[in-house]
Amino acid sequence: MEQDRIEYEEYLESGGSTDPASAVGGSDKTTAVNKMVLGVDFGTSSLRCALLDGDKSSIVEDRDGARDTPSYVFYEEGSEPVLGRLAKQKLHVGPMEVLSVHDILSGEDRQKGVDAAALMLRDVIVDAIEKKGAGMIGEVESVVTYAPNYTAVQQEILVDAAKSAGLIDPYVVCEPVGALIAARKLEIVPATTKAQNCVVVDVGHGVMHVSVVKDDDVVATKSSMIGGALLQDTLVQVLANKFEEKNNGMKLRDDKLSLQRLYDEVEGIAAELSKKSRVDVDLPYITADEKGPKHLNESISLNVIKSMVDELVKEDEGLAGDGVADVVMGDLMEVLTASKCTPFELGTILVVGGASLSPIFRDSVKEAAVKMGGEDFMVKVVNVVEGGGREDMVAMGASLALEGI
Q: Are 278 and 306 in contact (CB under 8 A)?
């Protein structure tokens, strides 16, 4: 409903309050059934949960008051695993072992994957349920999403982890299906698109998934290793190289504390470059030598970063294309061919995921659509989810997936 969409935009502008009145579906109408469903989105870099309370779905905050939790686990011999932000802060410091839950799920140690994912889920969802006053966690239905390139074994690990965290008989839904469910609820795309072939381009931290979905079923999918991590690595490389040139060859990437500071900084830089063509970077006391402290002061251009990202894509033998736009175009054509669908049969091309904030990625989808069908076609079918919603779609769609069941 249009009212749902308006309230959701107000919800984002208010900072994502968990007040049910500001959540999706929070109209004046009431429902006799106080059904609670927890939707869980385990991304490559973060965990995000949404709770459907009656007819209202909202993103739930973790114990730090954040709308998502970094999905990292830090292991140190003789100590309990450290989760979330504390683990992420050690990602480039070493020598301790910091792994993303996604990497663990992709590994050979099944039990380690179950334990890591369960730890993360339990840490987030227990607080979430308590904040909502929903009672015991086992009283809440749940839907866990999985990436479209996950194997059956990886899906089973996620289900086992959810059960270990206290969720009872969780359902599973593929991520692009969840994104479309939420987009229909918010009228970002028409309800009629459910019966049509739709493309979901989900640009995450480490992977971009391009999927064709029809009747809430994934018909074809292609995954490429591009996303937010590639952009952040490029930004770090540019800043470190500029610093080295001006400071007699000092290598910030050889200093683990300096490297961690760079990675912490570039998240904000990437967000700024989504709105500006140039960003000034000021990092005082980034390192020191025998003469005293050193400071990093640089200006970064979006065009330069885009060129470097494209060059890295071109050099990567695992990617087919001379840049991001080529990869996006190739992946789109591959899934359309696999699903025996032409571009003009598409109900929508929905663009979601945290990294779609960057014009390097979102504009590549638009460019591909123009090449496939022209400017008018692109305007008609491409829907780029804006604001914080780009990262909410999968979790919210998961919480809504049981409607009508």
A: no
Cα Rg of the chain, angstroms: 21
**pLDDT tens per residue across span 379-389:** 999 999 998 78
- Report helix angle 228-246 to 302-315, nearest 10: 110
Q: Would you say residue 28 has pLDDT above 70? A: no
Task: Give the separation between CA 329 and CA 326, rounded to whole angstroms.
Answer: 5
* CA-to-CA dists, residue 296 to 241, 256, 309, angstroms: 11, 16, 22
The SS3 of residue 32 is coil
Task: Please tell me the predicted confidence (pLDDT) of residue 134.
Answer: 53
- Domains recognised in the chain with CATH numbers: 2-180+390-400 (3.30.420.40), 189-226+320-384 (3.30.420.40), 228-307 (3.90.640.10)
* 353-403 pLDDT tens trace: 999 999 999 999 999 999 999 999 999 999 999 987 899 999 999 999 998
180, 188 Cβ separation under 8 angstroms: no
The DSSP string of 233-288 is HHHHHHHHHHHHHHTTT--GGGSHHHHHHHHHHHHHHHHHTTT-SEEEEEEEEEEE
The neighbour count for residue 71, using CB atoms within 10 Å, is 30
CB burial string 369-387: b at 16+ within 10 A, e below: beebbeeebbeebbbbbee
Report the percent of the chain where pLDDT is more than 70. 87
CA distance linking residue 114 with residue 110, whole number of Å: 6
> Which residue type occupies 137?
I
Please tell me the predicted confidence (pLDDT) of residue 130: 65
Contacts of 331 by beta carbon, 8 Å cutoff, 6+ apart: 208, 210, 222, 224
